[in-house]
Task: inverse folding
């Protein structure tokens, strides 16, 4: 591996200052399952790792019925998907985190790492998008919040400015009569990178879909939130026709590439299938029969 | 070269101090600084599980951990699995079921299989295959490994150590 320094600050201020002074080649280290490999394979030029795991806020998992769920950016996946609150109130988050890599990856990998690595195929990002997640960012100019759907700007790129890092991700409290789900397609049953993934969240008022959020991944340079799919669903009862319209909107919005994992045609098809499946599961979790 | 840093951890139950480069992975430190060569370098990128060890009670790929991260941590490698009086049931079952050929993946499979059986003493075949998805074997075709884990589970449930 290239020569590098390792520091482990205990406060947010210290981490920000280390990152700001370290410049473009300083990198946050949480679970390390992406960045350590990238440093070794020189996919990213890194000469300073700032380990944020000694900062308490990055390891938190706190829920408040009024304000919602806050997940520390460095909290490993296995703690998230084994948490009873996550399992019962945010199952879409468990859907995604329980299948990122294998067990040894889930022992270390985090939501913050998955978000900041900003892979187009990141498994947790569509789930975080439909759950209206907001990244709580600390930096030289103080704190700010960035909606997860606006976080990624391209493959491996995101809105973080020099010296900034994600401290935690916040999710609003689940509304009554709501549900969300996440799915992906891979050729194996586990331990693979998504050919495509998708997530949906629905809130009902009576029989009507009062709010919808739909997101797809691995089919564009960034995970995409699909306004057109949400529009096709909102203000109407959920029917096979509205689900089909949302699925068609997903295929239309996808801008996939051909690569060893899948073709453009397959990925467009998968986007629609996974949107349909996650909508049906989100409705089921919201207590609706279709 | 960066200066080496002293790291203190409990490794296989023993307090261990070692010097590491800041860029060393835990795998490199175990093998090259401490002389514990059980964990193997397979892919060196988190895909194959040959370097799997327990870090503070969790299964991790030691190639994806920096040596300096394990200050004050508790680590168990394949060398720490056998009891004083003989092999651990997982090791015994791997031998009896011929669940290894070249052996490179075996330390990772042993550590990962024990981690599973410690929290789930009677896993289904599906649960075993799912848990071991992060461990790759190019020799056995996996079926013998699955049988060995099932047999080790039986041995452990029956309190047998051989």
Result:
């Amino acid at each position: 591996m290239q020569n590098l320094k390792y520091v482990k600050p205990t406060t947010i201020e210290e981490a920000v200052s280390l990152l700001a002074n370290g410049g473009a080649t300083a990198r946050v280290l949480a679970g390390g399952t992406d960045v350590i490999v990238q440093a070794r394979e020189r996919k990213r030029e890194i000469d300073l790792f700032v380990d944020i795991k000694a900062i308490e806020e990055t390891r938190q998992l706190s829920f408040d019925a009024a304000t919602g769920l806050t997940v520390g950016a460095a909290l490993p996946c296995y703690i998230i998907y084994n948490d009873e609150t996550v399992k019962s109130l945010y199952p879409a988050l468990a859907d995604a985190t329980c299948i990122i890599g294998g067990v040894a990856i889930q022992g270390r990998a985090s939501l913050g790492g998955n978000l900041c690595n900003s892979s187009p195929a990141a498994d947790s990002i569509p789930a975080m998008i439909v759950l209206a997640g907001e990244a709580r960012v600390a930096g030289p100019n103080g704190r700010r919040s960035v909606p997860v759907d606006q976080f990624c700007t391209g493959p491996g790129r995101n809105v973080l400015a020099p010296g900034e890092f994600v401290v935690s991700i916040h999710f609003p409290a689940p509304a009554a009569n709501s549900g969300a789900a996440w799915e992906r397609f891979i050729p194996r049953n586990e331990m693979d990178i998504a050919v495509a993934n998708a997530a949906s969240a629905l809130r009902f008022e009576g029989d009507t879909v009062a709010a919808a959020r739909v997101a797809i991944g691995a089919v564009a340079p960034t995970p995409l939130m699909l306004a057109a799919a949400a529009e096709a669903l909102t203000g109407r009862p959920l029917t096979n026709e509205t689900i089909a319209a949302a699925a068609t909107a997903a295929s239309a919005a996808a801008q996939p590439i051909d690569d060893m994992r899948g073709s453009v045609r397959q990925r467009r098809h998968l986007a629609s299938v996974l949107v349909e499946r996650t909508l049906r599961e989100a409705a089921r979790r919201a207590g609706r029969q279709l | 070269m960066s200066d080496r840093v002293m790291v203190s951890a409990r490794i296989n139950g023993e307090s261990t101090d070692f010097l590491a480069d800041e860029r060393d992975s835990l795998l490199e430190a175990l093998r090259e600084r401490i002389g514990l060569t059980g964990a193997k370098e397979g892919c060196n990128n988190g895909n194959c599980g040959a370097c799997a060890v327990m870090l503070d009670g969790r299964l991790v790929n030691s190639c994806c951990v920096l040596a300096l991260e394990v200050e004050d941590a508790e680590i168990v490698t394949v060398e720490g699995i056998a009891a004083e009086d003989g092999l651990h049931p997982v090791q015994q079952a791997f031998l009896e079921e011929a669940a290894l050929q070249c052996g490179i993946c075996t330390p990772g499979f042993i550590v990962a299989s024990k981690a599973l059986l410690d929290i789930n003493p009677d896993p289904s075949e599906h649960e075993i295959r799912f848990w071991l998805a992060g461990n790759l074997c190019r020799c056995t075709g996996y079926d013998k490994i699955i049988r060995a884990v099932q047999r080790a589970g039986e041995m452990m449930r029956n309190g047998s150590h051989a």
Summary: The CA atoms of residues 109 and 135 of chain B lie 6 Å apart.
